[in-house]
Amino acid sequence: MTVDTGNKISYILTNAGFTTVETPVISIELADKPGELLNLAGTLAGHGINITTVYGTALGGNTARVLIAVSDTDRAVELLSAGR
Predict the structure, then answer these.
(1) Are 43 and 84 in contact (CB under 8 A)?
(2) 2 found inside a domain
(3) Is the pLDDT confidence value at 3 over 80?
(4) Is there a contact between 84 and 28 (Cβ–Cβ < 8 Å)?
(5) How many of the other CB atoms lie within 10 Å of CB of 2?
(6) Is the model's pLDDT at 84 over the cut of 60?
(7) How many CA atoms lie within 13 A of 53 on its CB side?
(8) From the DSSP assignment, how many helices (H) and strands (E) are in the chain?
(9) How far apart are CA 62 and CA 35, in angstroms?
(10) pLDDT value at residue 41
(11) 65 near 27, Cβ under 8 Å?
């Protein structure tokens, strides 16, 4: 489950007997075409950042949304914000 209100949801699920784990993720929109995820992974790998989890979905048109958890979130955000 991916949510933007982690503390509230975690509290509710924990009280219902579930175990929760909170992991920060980065949300990225990419062109929905072959090679885009490879380019993203290559950029991160070139700076020693490992992708630990990835989720993705097509948004329609020619756009996809990818959520990634990485070994160094702050550095990855910095790199990706700089235009890769």
Answers:
(1) yes
(2) no
(3) no
(4) no
(5) 10
(6) no
(7) 12
(8) 3, 3
(9) 13
(10) 96
(11) yes
Given this model, what pLDDT does residue 60 score?
Answer: 84
Tokens of 14: 């924990």
Residue 5, domain member (yes or no): no
Residue with tokens 């219902």: 16
State how many domains the chain has: 1
Whether pTM > 0.85 for this model: the answer is no
Q: How far apart are CA 60 and CA 3, in angstroms?
A: 21
13 within domain boundaries = no
Query: At 20, which amino acid appears?
Result: T
Residue 19: inside a domain: no
Taking residues 14-31, report their average pLDDT: 92
Specify the length of the chain in residues.
84
Which domain range does residue 73 map to? 24-81
| Percent with pLDDT over 70 in the chain | 92
Give the pair of three-digit tokens for residue 11. Answer: 């509290």
Q: Is the pLDDT of residue 25 over 70?
A: yes
What CATH number does residue 58 fall under? 3.30.70.260
